[in-house]
Amino acid sequence: MRATLRTAWLMARKDLRVEWRSRVALNQILPFAAITMVLFAFAVDRLPAAPGDVDTVLVQLAPGLASLGTVFSLLLLVQRTFAVESEDGALDALRAAGVDATAVFWGKTLAMWIQLAILSALLLGTAVVIYGIEVRWSGVALLVTTWLTATFGLAAVGTLYGGLAAGARGRETLLPLLMLPVVAPVLIGATRAVEAALGTGGTAIADGWPWVGVVAVFAVAFGAGGTLAFGPLIDE
Amino acid sequence: MDRPVVELTGAVAVLGSFPALAGASLVVQRGEIVLLRGPNGAGKTTLLRVCAGLLPLARGTGVVLGCDLATERDAVRRRVGLLGHRNGLYLDLSVAENVRFWGATVGATDDEIDAAMDRLGLSGRLAPLPVRRLSAGQQRRTALACLVARRAELWLLDEPHAGLDATGRDELDATLRQAAASGATVMVASHELERAGSLATRCVDVVAGQVVGPR
User: Fold this and answer.
1) Contact between A78 and A162 (Cβ < 8 Å)
2) Helix A184-198 with A171-182: angle, nearest 10 deg
3) Which residue of B has its CA nearest to A104?
4) Quick one: which of A40, A126, A179, B184 could link to A65 by a disulfide (CB 3.0–4.6 Å)?
5) Which letter, b or e, does each residue of A20-57 get, where b requires 16 or more Cβ atoms within 10 Å of its Cβ?
6) What is the set of domains in chain B, with CATH numbers?
7) Do the beta carbons of residue B121 and residue B141 sit within 8 Å?
8) ipTM exceeds 0.85
9) Which of A21, A81, A82, A86 to mutate to test the interface with B (most CBs of B within 10 A)?
């Protein structure tokens, strides 16, 4: 167990160091996500959602748009993190060296979680600024819990499916095809919980916590699934 | 006499439905540099992958470094270093970071990692350079330093001279001789018979999935 944790930490540090050196997430994925958020603002109406409503359509849709932006960023992050592994055959080398696959899974998940959490926070910040959303203090705890739980769940799914697609022909197109249907529960749960945290559409904060539970169950399920399945998947 | 490092008897390995190894038998002793020669598709790479614990045996028996290939393939993988057509390096990281990472996977100490880099002549100006900026020969040397840092006892090299210039080939040969002299065992699959033959202490012919030459 201790050796697994040590190797997982080694993998996570290595992945974060690769990103620090290459700056792909910072210079390419983050601008892509920001542009997507701006395009959503152009595409969606700024008029009130219904006659007499305070919120505009854009504000009401903002939680869902931020979640979508996070999922799109996740696709690019997963592609990138496994491209680093396959560029010179490092994933095969890890397998050939008998490095604990569970540690590889958790290390990559941790590194992706950290990167995705930062990206997601910046996306939500962008939404607050350019969509004109007001954040209520009473919803901050729900917002932060949702943010951490959802990004962890997405990182676990991303690592698992990234490993599955890593050796496949046409993996660039296969990955979204496999992953997008699977992340739907996180997308829905996170959107509803963020709506409750922000109070868009008149939802109460208490309405958000059950959705966080849904996201947490999903995150635990994919964490456990990855622990068991990642080794056989990359061994194929 | 020590137990052989590799003992294969009637080894059969199947790729899909194709028997890539068809009853190969081979014994390799510690400190040997064995050249596997044979035409394309003869089973040289498959033989290396079986010895690395990556491919299971469908029939026959195999023991590598005292570990049974039927039941202890994970233990074999941890003690063997396989270098294929690609180096298994992280191109955005520096030479030192790569060697440190691979050494750390087996808990190598800083001294062991520094010694691995010294041995491959990577401690000076090359250490902080990103691997992406190195020549093919320097990248291969980095990959070999990673094998040293990983304490690999059996080196399995598939076409190690491919893509190297004359200097790179000389450096590689010197490294392999030094590795064998310090107790490692080396198996090389190569088409460069003249060069690899002068390096090897023994040549073995592989034809149609069987070892037909001296075993």
Assistant:
1) yes
2) 60
3) B105
4) A40
5) ebbebbeeebbeebbebbeebbeebeeeebeeeeebbe
6) 6-88+151-211 (3.40.50.300)
7) yes
8) yes
9) A21
How many helices (H) and strands (E) would you count in chain A? 10, 0
Burial class (CB in 10 A: 0-12, 13-18, 19+), B125: exposed
Whether B178 and B119 have beta carbons less than 8 Å apart is answered as yes
**pLDDT band for position B214 (cuts 50, 70, 90):** low
Residue whose structure tokens are 């008029």: A47
Q: Report percent pLDDT > 70 for chain A.
A: 97
| Residue that the structure tokens 């137990």 belong to | B3
B22/B31 Cα distance (integer angstroms): 27
Task: Check A88 against B84: CB less than 8 A apart.
Answer: no
Sign of the CA dihedral A163, A164, A168, A172?
negative
pLDDT of residue B146: 94
**What mean pLDDT comes out for the span A110-138?**
90
**Which tokens is A21 given?**
């050196």
Q: How do the domains of chain A map onto residue ranges?
A: 2-235
Mean pLDDT of B37-48: 90
Mind telling me how many Å the CA of A162 is from chain B's nearest CA? Answer: 18
Whether the Cβ atoms of residue B203 and residue B37 lie closer than 8 Å to each other:
yes
**Encoding tokens for residue A112?**
């992706």
A200 touches chain B (CB under 8 A): no
- The DSSP annotation for B14-40 comes to EETTEEEEEEEEEEE-TT-EEEEE--T
Tell me which of A224-228, B159-163, B195-199 is least confident: B195-199
- Which 3 state secondary structure label does DSSP give B157? strand
